[in-house]
Design a protein that fits this description.
The protein has 181 residues and is α+β, with helices and mostly antiparallel strands. Helix content is 26%, strand content 29%. It has a single domain, classed as 3-Layer(aba) Sandwich (Aminopeptidase). A hairpin with a 7-residue loop joins β3 (56-69) and β4. The longest helix has 28 residues, at 11-38. The radius of gyration is 15 Å and the shape is globular. The chain binds coenzyme A. Coenzyme A binds at residues 21-22, 82-85, 90-96, 118-119, 121-122.
């Protein structure tokens, strides 16, 4: 399995992986979201990575630019959304490797903190912690029953605890329906 940055010519593969991973119900809307984010100037700089098994794209992860408002310090932040692995390739560590490679590259480029709205049983294995309790307000209110799905991970030690505020995400992501769970 190899991971590399996705280029414009990989768009078909990216959208295929997203559609298949999220299935008939959510796949098309997630693919539309990703397509929108890839062309959204407010999402830049973004990091889009594809995982390949031989020549077949089997996983994709996208990180887009975020801002923390109300924080005294200027902190470089990013949001992980979405992460997708083809159904037949799940539970083989591919999602985890995409997260780890993404975090490594973001850290190298100076990103200090990463947010995610996702499965609360999955992301803590990669260092993510409930963000609300740590002082980071999501872009849109998250229903109480999903509060622990809003998580944060620091790439520069000490960011969590020394800063707090509301997170502003890219325009295309900044719609209440993207913040339901
Ligand atoms: C979630 C997803 C990206 C995980 O990718 P993956 O490559 O299968 O994950 P990994 O192999 O790195 O990790 C597997 C472990 O994560 C956990 N896990 C996987 N999917 C999970 C889920 N939906 N909820 C909770 N835990 C999950 C399991 O504990 C699993 O370990 P196990 O096989 O020992 O039980 C993948 O299942 C997927 O694309 N799902 C559909 C789209 C989606 O829900 N994306 C995430 C949006 S936040």
């Amino acid at each position: 399995m190899k991971i590399r940055k996705a280029t414009e010519s990989d768009l078909k593969d990216v959208l295929y992986v997203e559609t298949q991973a999220f299935g008939n119900e959510h796949g098309p809307e997630i693919a539309k979201l990703v397509n929108g984010l890839l062309g959204d100037p407010t999402a830049m700089p973004l990091l889009s990575l594809l995982a390949f098994d031989d020549k077949q794209a089997i996983g994709h992860i996208l990180f887009t630019k975020a801002y923390i408002t109300g924080s005294e310090e200027s902190i470089s932040a990013s949001i992980l959304a979405p992460l997708a692995v083809l159904p037949d390739s799940q539970r083989q560590g591919i999602g985890g490797q995409l997260i780890e490679e993404g975090m490594r590259l973001l850290s190298e480029s100076g990103v200090e903190v990463v947010f995610v709205l996702g499965h609360p049983d999955y992301y803590p294995s990669f260092g993510f912690k409930p963000a609300g309790a740590l002082g980071f307000e999501a872009s849109h209110p998250i229903p109480d029953e999903h509060a622990d799905a809003w998580m944060v991970n620091e790439l520069r030690p000490g960011v969590i605890g020394s800063t707090s505020g509301k997170i502003i995400c890219a325009d295309v992501l900044n719609k209440p329906e993207n913040w339901c769970e």
